[in-house]
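Quick note —
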Amino acid sequence: MGKLRIICFIEGISCILLFFVAMPLKYIWEEPKAVSIVGMAHGLLWMGVVFALFMAYLDKTLSIKQAASMLFVSTFPLGMFWVDKQIVALEKSNQQ
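Predicted structure written out below.
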């Protein structure tokens, strides 16, 4: 679960960078290169999240319902931070 949290957090940061740094650079200051770079990194990180969720399901760390709901929410902007909160809650419930 630790690796899943890390990749979710990094993907969330890439989303923030894409929306609040790269896109304004493209649309306000007409500098499209930032969107190419940050957008590619964001896409690759999201694919990493999909893979990590699948692996967590295969390892029986997450149920299919948990993995599917996290995958669904991850498609929304900044949804990774909700996913991170859910992972923390699962870790706490597993410790008790």
